[in-house]
# Entry
Amino acid sequence: MEKKSPFLDTLFLLRKEGTLTIFSDFKTLSEKEEKEAEDFFESEFEKERLDFLSDKIPFNKEAAIWAAKVLYHSAQLYLIRKDTAKDLEKLIPQYQDEKDVSAILSADLSFRFLPKLLDALQIADSTDPLVKILENILQQFHYSGIGLDLNFEKINWEEELKNKTYRKLYLERIVEKKAYKLAEIPYINQLLIAEFGMYKDIFWRELKIIEN
# Structure
């Protein structure tokens, strides 16, 4: 992809190199920029589909673009940190559509990078209202927040993980992040132990086996 705008440049470099380049100007995205971002994320989604091997989960362009804007504007707000409180609701809107597996995985193309940004914000100023906003977003899209100290008490895990593909991805990320808080929830613990089988100590020796 050619470099065509600060928004697209930021997303491209973040996805390809893991580096976050911040541009200080807040500008309304053009339709052309949004369409190019949609095409980019759809291409990235299709690449990742090769890992979860399911053609039944469609790309959700609305969720992907919303999440990209949230990440991009949050990074800008972290940099500027002056007279920005009045713009928070406009720059970091809530997700209004259905939060299904398609939306969760499409948003994760950007949101997987959000926890590190949230950590940086908390270190800079834990009272910043943006911190609470991003915590609430990651509470809602908690697949992207695996490894953070989120509140999982109200989640019905059997319902949440009923999709086999999403369940597989969720468990894999718990193992990748060594997310003990999640892994020791009885229902998830049973799923993990069943997946590990006799190789449990190879995958995660320290993980306790939780009895119901």
Notes: The two ends are 51 Å apart (CA to CA).
